[in-house]
């Protein structure tokens, strides 16, 4: 299987409309080059452009959804279209990842569960999703996650319990914490014996330099491919069959002890 991670530069000065058109064209360019294309988190606005979230929020089936469905269909690829600021009809905003089939049909929508910012930014502007999402492709089961989720291993165990073999992370991770990004991507791959496809963005917006360094890690924790800092298409061949082989030969997941009680205090 071949995955193309489109590490989009999200810079101020390019309008949302212009970027949407540019990204649509980049997705279409992957026709015949990839089975699965992955985009970053909140690439229309930038993950840290908090002042744009409400202004640029879209209904689920808004302009970005329409453009990405068409691009997936024209390219004939599975498309994890990164995430958009979604406005729910009842009012709240969500950071919502979209996945399309090669026919341009919706395969999944995942509302980010862990919002970043502590008492600021996304954590107060967006509502939290509650549901884990997996998508069955012909070759592998994909578990969907977004950026800050990467710090929460229990989310990935939940995805693995739902059959995930390939863990996709769409991110807008900052350069200043790049060491965590690289470490956590490998950790999630090793502990879950799964592929990790982690697609970040490049450029700078809202004073935050993006880390880039999108990465694909195999179920043994080896880095199969890694991007640099700037806008780039990272194309990686990977073999989903290696997940079951790794889990059979080194069956650590079978040794999980479930339902451990919280330690007693005092
Ligand atoms: N957009 C995000 O979720 C940022 C996450 C982040 O900066 C971090 O976990 O560190």
Task: Give the second-level CATH assignment, the architecture.
Answer: 4-Layer Sandwich
Provide the list of bound ligands, each named once. Answer: ligand LYUYDEPV
Radius of gyration: 18 Å
Q: Count structural domains.
A: 1
Largest sheet: 6 strands, mixed
InterPro entries: C-N_Hydrolase, C-N_Hydrolase_sf, UPF0012_CS
GO molecular function: hydrolase activity
Domain CN hydrolase: 1-240
Keywords: Hydrolase
Outline of this structure?
The chain has helices spanning 16-28, 50-56, 63-75, 122-125, 153-161, 178-192, 241-249, and strands spanning 2-7, 36-38, 78-87, 93-100, 106-111, 134-136, 141-146, 166-170, 195-199, 204-205, 208-209, 215-217, 223-226, 232-237. The protein is an alpha/beta fold and 266 residues long. Residues 1-240 form the CN hydrolase domain.
Structural account:
Belongs to the carbon-nitrogen hydrolase superfamily. NIT1/NIT2 family. It comes from Streptomyces beihaiensis. With 266 residues, the chain is of the alpha/beta class. It has a single domain (2-249), classed as Nitrilase/N-carbamoyl-D-aminoacid amidohydrolase (4-Layer Sandwich), CATH 3.60.110.10. It is built from seven helices and 14 strands. A six-stranded mixed beta sheet has the order 5-4-3-2-1-14. Strands 6-7-8-9-12-13 form a six-stranded mixed beta sheet, covered by helices on one side. A two-stranded antiparallel sheet has the order 10-11. α1 packs parallel to α3 (63-75). The radius of gyration is 18 Å and the shape is globular. The mean pLDDT is 97. The ligand NC(=O)CCC(=O)C(=O)O is lined by residues 41, 47, 116, 147-148, 151, 172-174, 177, 180.
């Amino acid at each position: 299987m071949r995955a193309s991670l489109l590490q989009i530069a999200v810079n101020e000065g390019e309008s949302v409309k212009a970027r949407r058109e540019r990204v649509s064209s980049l997705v279409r360019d992957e026709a015949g080059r990839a089975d699965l294309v992955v985009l970053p988190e909140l690439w229309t606005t930038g993950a840290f452009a908090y002042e744009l979230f409400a202004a640029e929020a879209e209904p689920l089936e808004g302009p970005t959804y329409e453009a990405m469905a068409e691009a997936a269909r024209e390219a004939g690829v599975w498309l994890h279209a990164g995430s958009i600021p979604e406005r729910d009809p009842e009012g709240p905003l969500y950071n919502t990842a979209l996945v399309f089939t090669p026919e341009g049909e919706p395969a999944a929508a995942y509302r980010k569960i862990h919002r970043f910012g502590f008492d600021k930014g996304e954590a107060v502007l967006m509502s939290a999703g509650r549901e884990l999402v997996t998508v069955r492709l012909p070759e592998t089961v994909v578990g969907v996650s977004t950026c800050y989720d990467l710090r929460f291993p229990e989310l990935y165990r939940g995805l693995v319990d739902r059959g995930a073999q390939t863990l996709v992370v769409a991110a807008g991770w900052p350069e200043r914490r790049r060491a965590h990004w690289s470490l956590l991507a490998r950790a999630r791959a090793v502990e879950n014996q799964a592929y990790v496809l982690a697609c970040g963005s490049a450029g700078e917006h809202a004073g935050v330099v993006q880390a880039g360094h999108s990465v694909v890690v195999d179920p043994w924790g080896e880095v199969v491919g890694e991007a640099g800092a700037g806008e780039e298409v990272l194309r990686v061949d990977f073999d989903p069959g290696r997940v079951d082989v790794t889990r059979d030969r080194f069956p650590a997941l079978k040794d999980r002890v479930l339902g451990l009680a919280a330690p007693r205090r005092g």
